[in-house]
Amino acid sequence: MDTPTASLRTVAAMIATTVLTFAGCGGPAVDPTQPLTAPAGGDHARAFSETGEPAAIASDATGEEGRFAVVTRDRNASLIGFQVLEAGGTAADAAFAVGVAISVSEPHFSHALGGGTWALYYDAERETVEAVDGVGPAGSLVDIEFFRDPLRNTYLGMHRVIVPGAWDAWMLMLDRYGTMELDELMTPAITLARNGVAVTRSLAGFILQEQPHILRFPETAAVFLPGGRPPAVGDTLYQHDLADTLELIVDAYRAARPEGRSAALRAASDVFYRGPVAEAIVSYSEQHGGFLTREDFAGFAAQVVSPISTTYRGIRVYSPPPNSQGIAMLMALNILEGFDFVGRTPDDPWVIHRVVEATNLAKIDTWHYVGDPAWVDVPVGELLSAEHARRQRARIRPDRVTRWPAPGGLSSSNNTTTFSVLDRWGNAAAVTTSIGSQFLIAGTTGINVNQRMANMEITEDNPNMIAPGKKVRHTVNPYMAFRNGRPFILGGNTGFDTQPQGQIQQFINVVDFGLSAQEAVSRPRYIAHGFPSSTYPHAAGNHLFVETGFPAATLNALAAIGHTFGSPAIIGNGNMTKIDPVTGSVTVGADPRGENLGLVGPRP
């Protein structure tokens, strides 16, 4: 692999003089972790906000083919990642630049410093797929009785924050797979934070929605309610404290760079986990009822682990292992492989019913059996076995809907972003990263911290029950699919329990129904809730939520089977990169439900 020599100074200069705007994208957004209200009617290529306005008119994929690509839900991030690829950076370099950029331009979804990350990485030279676990544990001071008290377990607060694991995961990825310098890769994001970024429709809507909670935290309100009011679409949002923190990390990297790149990356991790950044976050946690200690930060290290996988119609599909919920997608695919979709369409109620039932059964098993493997014995082999899939498939009835409560199948008993990157050498990254809520800045760090304790259970004997030092059953689960041993699809979806469901639908849209990447992510989606929600209070609604665009005959047929519908919904946000198994050409799908952008190169 060639070592890139080009820098990102031109990118930083471009950002310094141009704050990207999104004309025509006004109007409120709503929580992507919950089904959204939408009007009846409309064609399947449009998503709707609560106002009935098109929610995705700024989204775009180039529609062209190329040899490398990046697709994200944020235009700043896509442009920055693409510039890294053009400069000769690897998929890891570009993915990191994207991850830091979205911390500035879409902080309500993810944060490279405050959140958690699961990533899959394909090393083309070694022909290996590895998973990077960037999920931190619950604080060592956690008290489960606190979370059983509804008066103390409020919607938002430092009590929900786990150790942010994403930053060490990014340092690990750069050390293992990257080639470019950290300070150059961070320069565009620092420029965005310091000079300001245009407020998107999504960010403006979430701030408006969360205003009562933001007002509870003065440091958070100072950033997201400048002048005491919610910013409008197109206003400039400044994050000077975050810029200072990012520059502090850059300074540590530069100071240690004479000792070598790996040593410098360790220094960039240490200043966060064992230096002033951790001290500031812990101090704020102590002042505001959190459960984190300095030892919790100092003891954390991201890990490279083996992914789990299955085959679907001869295609190998990889997902992160537990503590991720990625196993749910694989279990559902194992069940679905036993059904023949030939001659059917994505709108066929026969297809939708089986996808919904397979998903419900897989998510029920996830609730019963999956947790932090350091704490519980997760029977991955049995859950992914052909025999288990056969038993689960036999539980599906053509005229009956699975409803919670339901037993597991073993014989013995929406604040997220996802993106993918492919570089010119064939290395690939599929990343899903999240904070699990919207707005809570840890003091003067400028870091929007996660709220992941909301995804841990208070139910006795559940494998995901809250405990000090335990990792949450994390909802993020990007995937990679390989055909004939080569990358074929890189994908992901957002929205807690929506993630595996949206991914399954996009995947079979390509594999079973022959759609393009863009068609696969644009088609209307549906999600089931015949299992406990991943988010507190973990209710199971037993409803099917659908986006507008499905034929009335399809919905009537599903209702006749016994499916009960929730309000029409906008369901998550997904991106996809597809590599032609014969020609190697690359196309992308950028979700029209958001302000997404996919780019392929090289440019002509």
Structure description:
The structure is a single chain. The protein is α+β, with helices and mostly antiparallel strands and 604 residues long. It contains 19 helices and 18 strands. It has helices spanning 9-17, 75-86, 91-105, 144-147, 166-177, 182-195, 201-214, 218-224, 240-256, 261-273, 276-287, 294-298, 327-336, 349-369, 380-383, 386-394, 498-511, 517-522, 552-561; strands at 60-61, 68-72, 116-123, 128-134, 197-198, 236-237, 303-305, 308-312, 315-319, 416-422, 428-434, 479-483, 486-493, 526-528, 544-546, 574-579, 586-590, 597-601. β12 (479-483) and β13 (486-493) form a beta hairpin. The protein is globular. The two termini are 23 Å apart. The model is unreliable at 1-7 and 13-59 (pLDDT under 50).
Helix content range: 25-40%
Q: Would you count the extended β strands for me?
A: 18
Mean pLDDT over the full residue set? 88
How does the overall form come out from the CA principal axes? Answer: globular
Distance between the termini: 23 Å
Low-confidence stretches: 1-7, 13-59
* Secondary-structure content class: alpha+beta
Radius of gyration: 22 Å
- By DSSP (H or I, 4+ residues per run), the number of helices equals 19
Widest sheet: strand ordering: 1-18-2-10-11-3-4-7
Q: What summary fits the major beta sheet? A: 8 strands, mixed
What oligomeric state do the depicted chains represent? single chain
Bin the strand percentage. 5-15%
